[in-house]
Amino acid sequence: MNLFATQPHASAIPLQAGYIFIGVFAVLLAASFVGQWLKRKKGRNNPTISNLNARVYAWWVMTLVLLLAFWFGKVGTVILFLLISFAALREFLTLVYQRSSDYNVMVACFYLLLPIQYYFVLTEWYGMFSIFIPVYGFLLLPIIASLSGRTEHFLERTAKTQWAAMVSIFCLSHVPALLNLHLDGFPHGQNVLLLIFMIAVVQSSDVLQYVWGKTLGKRKIMPTLSPSKTVAGTVGGIASATLIAVLLSPITPFSPFQAGLIGLVLCLMGFFGGLVMSAIKRDYGVKDWGNMIQGHGGMLDRVDSICFAAPVFFHIVRYFWHG
């Protein structure tokens, strides 16, 4: 069975996606070589080099997991993002919501809202997918909370669970939902390329903002929210990632100009998503959402920008290109 195929089926990846993965693996090989060379030259105890190698290792793992999910097609991709949502929801609620009286609310998030939302993705039930959490979930959670009889900080407690469900479940479920779109002039079996386009643009924006910031950045853009982000890093990273979006336009139904505009929107939404999630972390006095991924913090630290970019991308594509 071919891993990459020109005519995708349940266990194949479009040829264009295969080329992209090959390119990513080539970059990771080069980064691994550089990291090990710097480790031998600078010593094992250099914190910057150790952090670099940890990040490269984490990207190896994440890229392989993503490739495996795409290979298993829609079911594999939906399961992967269901697990990502589960991990993100766990990190969110662990940090902001620790009242034992609201245990039933958290159970509802994990074992009711989460699986039902991804069931709607799997069955392509767009109507319920789009309203289940923002309408029924948002009404159900405070009802369950009120049954505990505890009224102190009720609005705050309810808002936390609603926000956790919105970001960790609803927003992230838009990533595999891209596989359900039927676009004019774009083969349905190649929808995985839309996922790759979005993830590549958003994640490259994050990485390039870091690179530009370390290279040229001096002035902080939002020091109270994200002390590491600089004006030069933000502008340089977003501009560079927008250019990457233009270069990736051949794998999408977008023209180069359209891909650039969409890429810019994705980068901006990812940037603002990172700021919002950083504000929550700063409010609770933590640097990372968790330590699940070596060198990358928690799951939410990796997908915070995707949480904000994915719904916007999904609805832009569905509105303007849906058949």
UniProtKB/TrEMBL annotation:
An annotated Gene Ontology molecular function: phosphatidate cytidylyltransferase activity
Lyase listed as a keyword: no
Transmembrane segments: 12-35, 56-72, 78-96, 103-120, 126-149, 161-179, 191-211, 231-251, 257-280
Cellular component annotations (GO), alphabetically ordered: plasma membrane
Superkingdom assignment: Bacteria
Signal peptide (UniProt feature, chain positions): none
GO biological process: peptidoglycan-based cell wall biogenesis
EC number per UniProt: 2.7.7.41
Entry keywords, A to Z: Membrane, Nucleotidyltransferase, Transferase, Transmembrane, Transmembrane helix
Record protein name field: Phosphatidate cytidylyltransferase
Organism expressing this protein natively: Neisseria zoodegmatis
